[in-house]
Amino acid sequence: MIVGWSYYAYVIQLCIGSITDIGEKVVCVVAYHLFFIMFAWAYWKTIFTMPMNPSKEFHLSYTDREILEREERGETQQEVLRRIAKDLPIYTRTLSGAIRYCDRCQLVKPDRCHHCSVCDKCILKMDHHCPWVNNCVGFSNYKFFLLFLAYSLLYCLFIAATDLQYFIKFWTNGLPDTQAKFHIMFLFFSAAMFSISLASLFGYHCWLVSKNRSTLEAFRAPAFRHGADKNGFSLGFGKNLRQVFGDEKKYWLLPVFSSLGDGCSFPTCLVNQDPEQPSTPAGLNTTVKSVGDASPFPAKPLRESQSRLLINGQSWTESDGGHEEDKHGTSNPAMVIENET
Ligand SMILES: [Zn+2]
Ligand SMILES: [Zn+2]
């Protein structure tokens, strides 16, 4: 409703009804529509892109579910889960070192995946559930969400900037006494107010992208086998940016899907130090196909993009703490399946 009203107030009341100079009128209407189209496009994509859920291999088979339900001891349940997780590209654990498991969806949670209590589903690389778009912001629409913030900020700044002189006229009684003057006044107020809140939210998310953290991870650092590490998924500024926006610059500013990976697993500099997990896949020299050109959610580009993102990166040398944690899981009787929501 606010967007609809802003269109009416700006185009009809301000541009057509109040601006007298023809040149200014045309420039304002044309430029406004450019901002409006980009904003509406990104907004639309953020709202209507379905959040992605973990793929089949993360779900427990019927027999495993039965075993898990039969077992009462957390320790044995963990053994079952560890056996399942062995073949999955999972590097994160709960803070106590247990396999992350979702009780409601009955699946082993992929890295960075969280259960959304509003959607009642596990959402890949869940960022947060956003009431402004009535949708979960996660792997499938995070780029759209960022562009939505950017374009709505530009939209508001453009309106505020071009409306400013008429807003001043309103207070100096320079406007004719029609209903347009109230639209002009409220338009400036709301554009300025939204600009301030959007700028701070957009700034925060730019910082998150540069650090490769989701909002949830900013509040609680993901735990790896060597412990919680808030920089666990960070690969350096350039690669962090490319993970969200993709390799092809021409797609960066458009709300089309171009994020790298499949959302189920993410490159981490700690990967190669994890003895339980398969190492970085071979075939680093294979020709990399553009993610932007592929289907919206490419089935298997992750391996390639993962390798690509890691190939130039220096692996961190992990201190020798890896073995202890291996036993940690089995010897801790207090260990239970932990559910994070
Ligand atoms: Zn779940
Ligand atoms: Zn949600």
UniProtKB/TrEMBL annotation:
Keywords: Acyltransferase, Membrane, Transferase, Transmembrane, Transmembrane helix
E.C. number(s) listed in UniProt: 2.3.1.225
GO CC terms in record: membrane
Membrane topology (UniProt): Multi-pass membrane protein
UniProt region (Disordered), positions on chain: 293-341
Biased composition (Basic and acidic residues): 320-329
Palmitoyltransferase DHHC domain residues: 99-219
Catalysed reactions listed for this entry: L-cysteinyl-[protein] + hexadecanoyl-CoA = S-hexadecanoyl-L-cysteinyl-[protein] + CoA
Predominant place of localization: membrane
Transmembrane segments: 26-44, 144-162, 182-204
Record has Cell wall biogenesis/degradation as a keyword: no
Top-level division of the source organism's lineage: Eukaryota
Subcellular location: Membrane
Biased composition (Polar residues): 307-318
Free-text note on domains in this protein's UniProt record: The DHHC domain is required for palmitoyltransferase activity.
UniProt record similarity statement: Belongs to the DHHC palmitoyltransferase family.
Protein name, UniProt field: Palmitoyltransferase
Gene: Zdhhc2
